[in-house]
Amino acid sequence: MSLVFSAITPHPPILIPAIGKDNLNELKNTSQAYKELEESLYAREVETIIIISPHGLISPSSFTMNLSPEFTISFEDFGDLVTKMKLPGDVGLAYKIRESLETKAPLQLISEPNLDHGSGVPLYLLAQNLRSANFQRKQTKIIPLYYCGLDLKAHFQFGQLLKKELVASKNRVGVIASGDLSHRLTKDAPAGYSRQGAKFDKKLIEYLKNKKTSEIFKMDEKLISDAGECGLKSIAILLGILEGIKYEPQILSYEGPFGVGYLTAEFIFD
């Protein structure tokens, strides 16, 4: 099988050392989980990473795939003028995906070489070993993908369609669903406090851990809205890709010291 790695990652910019500084101590579980994911990604010799982000171009009714020969990761918007990385895009696989899906699902292409932080944070933290090994292996390429305004079921179905092309690929593919859970866990949270925030996070993690995918799509819409999350649609696409594949969920960490739920998980294939 060409799909060899899949994960859920949070994307707080404070995980970047030059930005987080002393605050990194508050996210030590997430930082450790990222190290475990980095080792797993490296061990599986991933050649192409599809990163699903909530912070690129979000269309009301069309999924978006970012196609560029090269991408730049930078955190200048967060005051870090030093930390940068460049990664090549997988133009060939991106075109195959478009050809396969263009009559089956709403999908538009853009070409934006500067990555959003929803893509940039996970890729920067996970690609260090891959970059150092590129002289020995094929250079790891990426395809950024952004969800849309359609409902959760449409995102799951899009993932199912996407899986067919990924499984047929000759490359070793990894898929990362980038997204944070509730932004309303505490009184000083970015979106304000809601007691529904912790309830949403607990339910979602329980369903993921026990592979109760159908229960995720039955979650109360008001609960989801009140939680103020940004990762559920990324996760829905990933679950569509994983549908029919034998896997074991591994929750590596969950914490929310700044009022936002940060979940890191890997789905291990049999």
Give the CA-CA distance, first to last residue.
11 Å
Radius of gyration based on Cα positions: 17 Å
How many β-strands, per DSSP?
A: 10
- Topology as H/E string? EHHEEEEHEHHEHEHHHHEE
Per CATH, which architecture? 3-Layer(aba) Sandwich
What is the number of independent domains?
A: 1
Provide a descriptive summary of the structure in words.
- 37% of the residues lie in helices and 24% in strands.
- With 270 residues, it is of the alpha/beta class.
- The strands form two sheets. Strands 6-3-7-2-8-1-10-9 form an eight-stranded mixed sheet, sandwiched between helices. The chain has a two-stranded antiparallel ribbon with strand order 4-5.
- It is built from ten helices and ten strands.
- The model has no long low-confidence stretch (mean pLDDT 94).
- The N and C termini lie close together (11 Å).
- α7 crosses α9 (221-227).
Topology:
Layout: E1 3-9, H1 17-20, H2 28-43, E2 48-53, E3 63-66, E4 70-75, E5 80-88, H3 91-101, E6 107-110, H4 117-126, H5 128-132, E7 141-146, H6 152-168, E8 173-178, H7 195-209, H8 213-216, H9 221-227, H10 232-242, E9 247-255, E10 262-269
Parallel strand pairs: 1-8, 2-7, 2-8, 3-6
Antiparallel strand pairs: 1-10, 3-7, 4-5, 9-10
Helix pairs in contact: 3-6, 6-10, 7-9
Produce a short descriptive summary.
With 270 residues, the chain is α/β, with parallel strands linked by helices.
Throw out a few tags for this protein.
270 residues; alpha/beta; Protocatechuate 4,5-dioxygenase, Chain B; two-stranded antiparallel ribbon; 10 helices; 37% helix; globular
